[in-house]
């Protein structure tokens, strides 16, 4: 158990160091960028790192078909570190929001991260639902394209941006259905219709969590559709304050300044 806590702490610390490094590099190499843009870019770099390595770990884990055949009771010890890696990211992100005064306006993220931390902790302790968690983490595949889309639009301007942005915009929407909606709906179907091993109380709790996740996915789909021009919406012209389809989060201090008629930039958080 000690080595698990050590791994958790090291992961959270490394994400914090990556953020500080990304912010420092941006300040030195992008002198024309404001603090808001530097903050957004640095946060996205960290989020992309988490999504990228989580995706590799999850896709590698799913090469073992037992995770899909027995998502409730198949246990593989090394897979717990995939969950702990994500727990380290969520802990870092909660601390990061606290450091930058964004917690008061980040209730959805606090709920999302808290539920994930509780769920992963319960899974590791009980050694059950490993397959459910691995399949659920397929969402990170789509998150890679979501963050890449934002980073490209912040970093690259001109003709190159239109080509690269279009690629990530289209892949982001495709993966949204294949790696967010489809796995979540399949897990709900499995728990409610197929599974006969899981107790009723546990099944209800897990199903409720999955329903919350799917509601989050639907909300994200709507935001991306409006931002990137899908399903009849007109594609928006985006700047650094509107490039993120997840929406903006303003610090409490910025809200006070805005009400006073001053600074109007938006600080932005990530999923």
Kindly summarize this structure in a few lines.
This protein has 271 residues and is mainly alpha-helical. It has helices at residues 2-29, 35-61, 66-69, 80-99, 107-126, 130-136, 139-155, 159-194, 200-228, 252-259. It has one domain (2-259).
How is the secondary structure organized here?
Elements: H1 2-29, H2 35-61, H3 66-69, H4 80-99, H5 107-126, H6 130-136, H7 139-155, H8 159-194, H9 200-228, H10 252-259
Helix pairs in contact: 1-2, 1-4, 2-4, 2-7, 4-5, 7-8, 8-9
Q: Could you describe the 3D structure shown?
A:
It is built from ten helices and no strands. The protein is an all-alpha fold and 271 residues long. It has one domain (2-259). Helix 1 crosses helix 4 (80-99), helix 2 runs antiparallel to helix 4 (80-99) and helix 7 (139-155) runs antiparallel to helix 8. It is globular. The two termini are 28 Å apart.
Shape: globular
- What average pLDDT do the residues reach? 85
Radius of gyration: 19 Å
* Biggest beta sheet summary: none
Distance between the termini: 28 Å
Q: Any key phrases for this structure?
A:
271 residues, mainly alpha, 10 helices
């Amino acid at each position: 158990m000690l080595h698990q806590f050590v791994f958790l702490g090291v992961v959270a610390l490394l994400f914090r160091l990556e953020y500080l490094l990304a912010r420092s590099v941006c300040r030195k190499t992008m002198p024309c960028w404001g603090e808001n843009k530097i903050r957004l870019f640095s946060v996205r770099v960290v989020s992309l790192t988490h999504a990228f390595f989580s995706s590799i770990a999850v896709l590698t884990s799913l090469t073992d078909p037992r995770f899909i055949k027995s998502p409730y009771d198949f246990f593989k010890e090394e897979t717990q570190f995939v969950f702990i890696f994500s727990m380290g990211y969520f802990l870092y992100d909660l601390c990061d929001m606290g450091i930058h005064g964004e917690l008061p306006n980040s209730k959805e993220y606090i709920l999302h991260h808290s539920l994930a931390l509780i769920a992963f902790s319960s899974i590791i302790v009980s050694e059950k639902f490993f397959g459910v968690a691995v399949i659920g983490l397929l969402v990170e595949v789509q998150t890679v394209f979501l963050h890449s889309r934002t980073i490209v639009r912040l970093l690259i301007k001109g003709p190159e941006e239109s080509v690269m942005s279009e690629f990530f915009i289209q892949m982001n929407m495709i993966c949204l259905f294949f790696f967010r909606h489809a796995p979540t709906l399949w897990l709900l179907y499995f728990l409610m219709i197929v599974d006969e091993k899981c107790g009723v109380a546990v099944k209800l709790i897990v199903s409720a969590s999955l329903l919350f996740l799917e509601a989050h996915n639907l909300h994200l789909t709507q935001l991306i559709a409006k931002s990137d021009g899908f399903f009849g919406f007109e594609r928006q012209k985006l700047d650094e304050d509107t490039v993120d389809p997840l929406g903006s989060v303003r610090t409490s201090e910025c809200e006070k300044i805005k009400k006073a008629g001053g600074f109007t930039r938006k600080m932005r958080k990530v999923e």
